[in-house]
Automatic annotation (TrEMBL), chain A:
This is ABC transporter permease. It is a multi-pass membrane protein. The keyword Transmembrane applies. It is found in: Cell membrane. It comes from Tepidiforma flava.
Automatic annotation (TrEMBL), chain B:
The lineage of its organism: Bacteria, Bacillati, Chloroflexota, Tepidiformia, Tepidiformales. Belongs to the binding-protein-dependent transport system permease family. This is ABC transporter permease. Residues 95-284 form the ABC transmembrane type-1 domain. It is a multi-pass membrane protein. InterPro entries: BP-dependent_transpt_permease, MetI-like, MetI-like_sf, OppC_N. Signal peptide: none annotated.
Amino acid sequence: MRQYILRRLVYVPLIMAIVSVLAFFTLRMPWAIDPVTLYVNQNTTLEQEQEIRRELGLDKPPLQQFFIWLGQVARGDLGETFRSRQPVWQEIARRLPVTLEILILSIFFSTLFGVTFGVITAVKQNTPIDYLFRFFAVFGQSIPDFFLLILLIVLPSIWWNYSPPVGGHIPFTQDPLENLRLYLPPTILLGVGGAAAMMRLTRSSLLEVFRQDYMRTARAKGLPGRAVVLQHGLRNTLIPIVTLIGGQITALFFGSLILEQVFSINGLGQFFLVSSVTGDFPVIQTLVLYTAIVVMGMNLLVDISYALIDPRVKYT
Amino acid sequence: MAATTAASRLDFAPAYRRPGPLRRLGRTARQHPAGVFGFIVLVLFVFTGIFGPALAPYDPDALSVGRPLEGPSLQHPFGLNQNGQDMFSRVIAGARVSLIISSAAIFIGAASGAFLGILGGYYGRWLDYIIQRSGEAFAAFPSLVLYFMLRAALGPGIEAIIAAIAIGALFGGNRVLRSATIIEARQTYVEAARAIGCSEWRIFIRHVVPNVLPLVIVIMSGALGGAILAESALSFLGLGPDVVSWGRDMSGQNLSIARTGYWHVVVFPGIAISLVVLGANLLGDSLRDIWDPRLRR
């Protein structure tokens, strides 16, 4: 197991190198936008423009810029943003808690509801309950998450003439109750799409497991139905479920940005959105590197969890 | 003479006659009402996307065609927004950008991804390895991050959106097609074609590709819903092109107005998106059930 993990980790620097080259040079292709044009107006003199270009480090040839940046990153310095001239790392660290909370809560809810309803519909296959939940699941996968979040704001304003507060952020450590009151409703809704996908996956994998011989044996030896379904059935469907959870973590980054937009929260999603529109190269480069690390870490965790879930899976 | 009459008298007509293609289509349609519903919705969507501006009762951009923020009425079925623009006309006009971006992304992304999957599955060896590994790499990368990178490089415009959604759809069905192709390439008819001296390219184009083509359509219709959702979400974030679109009509000023109780300003574009995506998903599910039950989840 340890050997397997070490072998996987050997690939990390290689992949990071490829990703950083791709990210860096996509932004500096001949047809790419010159970010300096975004920081000048008609009153800027040519000298001032040169000065800005020099300050941003964009006056050197791209290859030289790349190695300067690489040297910085190797020393743990992600550079300064073009816009605020603050260290990229600080700007990210400041916004990380909000986005992280949104991600954790919505993954929790989508897994909770998805697996629960998946088990219910599989056990009650071809009954009205099954049809009803599957009908809702198709809807859940079709309604855009921003529409659900907008309805969360708009419906109370029609029914009770009340509009949920927008724009405030209360850190969890400061006032846990108020924080959850703020974040629970939108994150439950954000999890709807994922829950629908999770429900369909759980249901179909569970139905497949139900046909196995060991399920019949479990019933034959007199185990109560609940134990058969949960211990023998669900345990054997965990692998596809865990894989889907791993995939959702990256997908929900989009969802977090949507939530931040609708509720005017200044989170990571907002920060990256603004940075991409303003051509803030150091931030975008960091975003790409960061995503690559998260994705690789996620995949590794998912693969390791296979061995924990299923004793037949062995890595050597 | 006697032999011919004897033969003609013999009744060779089988007890069961295979119904004509139209009748078979009708039978399939009756078994999949949800798919028919999805098909009708998508046909309407494409029709509105092409002829939208001609169908709209008002110019979607015309200001003050009625009292601003008026609720739904017979004259303005979806009401008016804060600029006095007719929401019904704007919902009709919004179909176009959604149709252009999603279909461009599907035809570029899902179609070429499907081709790569078939090619890799048939040829195998190093080509398959490269396609599968890069597929894994792209599948892991959220298309939003990709879009942010392209947006910073290419600036505003439709290209970055189409490219990001297309790359997102590129490797969606790749795996499934690859395995279907591997199975198909081992069939006896492929061996027969090779035995009579067909070139590898001819076998690939004339025999293998047509046999996995239904799967390509299944995958493309499955990816359509996701592409429309992605387009509307980007427009909602204010990243879309500067034209009337469903996502854009639900953001910014419209959203803040809706908070004060004027729900009709944002709800109708939202219903339009949901309906079209629902149609695409239902059609995709039905096509999958009809052509490839193995894919059923």
